[in-house]
Amino acid sequence: MMTIYKLSIVVSDKRGVGGIQNLDKKPKIGDVLTLSKDKQCYKITNITEIMPPRGHFIYLHVICKTTKNRS
Amino acid sequence: MTDIQELLKRYELFIGFTDDMLSKIIHLCQVRVYEPDSIIIEQQSSPINFYLIKDGTVDVITKLNVDGRIREMVIVTLGAGQSFGEMGLVDSGLRSATVKASALSELVVVNSREFLDLCEKDTDIGYRVMRNIAADLSFKIRYQNLIY
Question: ipTM value of the model?
Answer without folding.
Answer: 0.85
